[in-house]
Amino acid sequence: MTGPILRKADRDEVVEMTNLLHLAHAELADRGLNFSGVDQTVATTRRRSFQGSTWVLEQDGQLIGMATLSMPPSSVLRNLSEVANVRRAAWLNQLAVHPDHRGDGHARTLFEKIRDEAIRRRAAFLGIDTARPAEDLVEIYLYWGFVEREVIQWPGKAYDSLVMTLALRPLPAMPTQA
Q1: In a designed cystine with 92, which of 14, 47, 59, 128 is the match (CB 3.0 to 4.6 A)?
Q2: Which residues of 64-87 are buried (b: 16+ CB within 10 A; e: fewer)?
Q3: Could you list the residue range(s) of the whole structural domain that residue 18 is in?
Q4: In a domain? residue 173
């Protein structure tokens, strides 16, 4: 068994990526949270993954994790969120880790890759949105340094979504008064 390899996603593995999303989000569906990743189509995965930049973690020939960076965020999200309309906004989407590989820091590895790429692209901040009732996910994002910004309602979702952001650029110094 070799360690995981982090690399850019390949268009010919979109079916495997879709299956990973379904597996990773199944427990959320069991909790009544109809995340897009629960049952999204291969076409949706292709569109979401390759309109942005997607990285995968591969171990022993199997995809065990994935995450997508969208910059700018999708037009649908920008219609729902004031935060997503801020200039130089970047968004973390489709973060998923196979249930058999959780607890080994893979989500953090993917998050750090997305964060570093957003910094490289000179994003002002990295945004993420998740189901407000998914307290375990909200807790992870808070631990990573995200702050709560607003609540939105995605069409067709059975829950409110919490929009969170992580500042990527230091704020300019305040002018001093003489």
Answers
A1: 128
A2: bbbbbbbbbbbeebbebbebbebe
A3: 5-167
A4: no
